Amino acid sequence: MDAFTDNLWLATLRPVDQKRLAPHLKETPFDPGLMLYDIGEAVDAIWFPLHGVVSLMTDLGEGRAVETAAIGREGLVGVTCGPMNGRAATRAVCQIEGVAACCPAAVFADLLYHSAPMRVALSRFTEGLMAQVQQAAACNAQHRLDQRLARWLLTTHDRTDNDRLDLTQAEAIADLIDAETAEQSAQALGQLGGALAETYAGFRRDLLTALSLVEAEIDFPDEDIPDALASRAGPVLDALIEDLQRALADGRRGERIRDGYRIVLIGETNAGKSSLFNALVEREAAIVTPIAGTTRDVLDASLVIGGYAVTLSDTAGLRDSADPVEAEGVRRARARAEAADLRLWVLAPGDPVGPAGALVRPEDLCIRTKADLDRADWLDVPEGIATLTVSPTAGEGLEALTDWLSDRLAADLIGGDFPALTRERHRLRLEEALASVRAGRQALVVAPEMAGEDLRRAAHSLARVTGEIGVEDVLGEVFASFCIGK
């Protein structure tokens, strides 16, 4: 039982109750974002956090949720619903990475039934949890977002005994303050919990391993160490190169979630772009007239689709124009379309391919608009481009369009082998590190001392994201691995 007494609730139990409970406890890892149970689900286990933090979330609908309580090593998760009625009234989500002791809910309920002191301990915990819920409700109602976040950080600190935040976690706090969607909040909370920092720490450990092998052969040639030690760094560097490549090949997923997925409407003048824009943002944001060229500049609007932040842009109709104002609007439309994550090619009956046809890509969507008109002479779009038919004025096809966009956002933004890079700064440093590791791998065959210099450059690049890798780190790894100096 001693292994589980990092949980303060377990530590307060009588030795006899600890002895009865211990055989049923199993250590379980907590990963950021892991959902232990959802609202209405059967709760068949009780978790006693040893390290880490679990949030109890209340669903607000439309992809939004609010934390009503947090539980760390002071308590237990699942007991407010598991042994009592078996169904969850809240959603339990791991926010800070850690470990928990876990036991079946039925076993815990039986032990409670036979132990009055355990029931008293549980009652005291639930009273404290209820007080926390009441305080959270008052804080959420009365305080600004930055004040609420400050409270969350202080209470989380109490549960983790961690006095330090690395730079990625500090950035996550800023992202959490700015978050407008559930997915942005989830990404920021995962990063605050150390998911991104741990990824970079893993790269750091691999780099230290390779660097220690190289440095040991160069700096300690007279010591009793294996021959051709530096060559053993090759497989380590090969694996690190592969991991760095996979981390970078994420399609800018994290940045898209954080900054908003960019969708741009393009097409001919009077194709119906502005009408569709207004229908999607559900307000009269763009001026709509029958006069060709009404929209002269890029008009942006923020909205949420499928739980993800989206920046939707209405643009000027693409055509040649002698009017310098309209020509500038067309130039901006082209530039915005080139930079977009997704282009919606708005095509009215009778429209030619036009300049928009040269901007669309196979993964884009063609929207045949003005479906309420008594004509259907839409152009056949190039093969491979999906097509939907809508009428913004009649409200036809908008639900299908929203569903298509939700599916596309999920496909582009969910998943990945590593936590998503959330800033261009991270990406640039990882690209620098990858280039240096590749150079070091090539130099390893010819001159290990040159490889060491390249690997130190890679370490410096990673240090700008995660923290300094100094000489002491490398020597410590050398001494630990080969007992040099003993």
Descriptive keywords:
single chain, 486 residues, alpha/beta, Jelly Rolls, Four Helix Bundle (Hemerythrin (Met), subunit A), Rossmann fold, 3 domains, six-stranded mixed beta sheet, five-stranded antiparallel beta sheet, 18 helices, 17% strand
Based on the structure given, which CATH architecture of the largest domain is correct?
3-Layer(aba) Sandwich
What is the subunit organization of this protein? single chain
Instruction: Determine the fraction of residues in helical runs and give it as a percent range.
Output: 40-55%
State the major sheet.
6 strands, mixed
Query: Please, how many helices?
Result: 18
Query: Could you name the CATH homologous superfamily of the largest domain?
Result: P-loop containing nucleotide triphosphate hydrolases
Indicate the mean pLDDT: 82
CATH class of the largest domain: Alpha Beta
Order of helices and strands: HHEEEEHEHHHHHHHHEHEEHEHEEHHHH
**Which consecutive residue ranges, at least 5 long each, have pLDDT under 50?**
222-227, 469-486
The coarse silhouette is globular
Report the end-to-end length measured between terminal Cα atoms. Answer: 37 Å
Structural class call reads alpha/beta
Total E-strand runs? 11
The third-level CATH topology of the largest domain is Rossmann fold
- How many distinct folded domains? 3
Q: What would you report as the Rg, rounded to the nearest angstrom? A: 29 Å
Portion in strands: 15-25%
Write out the strand line-up for the largest beta sheet, numbering strands in chain order. Answer: 7-8-6-9-10-11
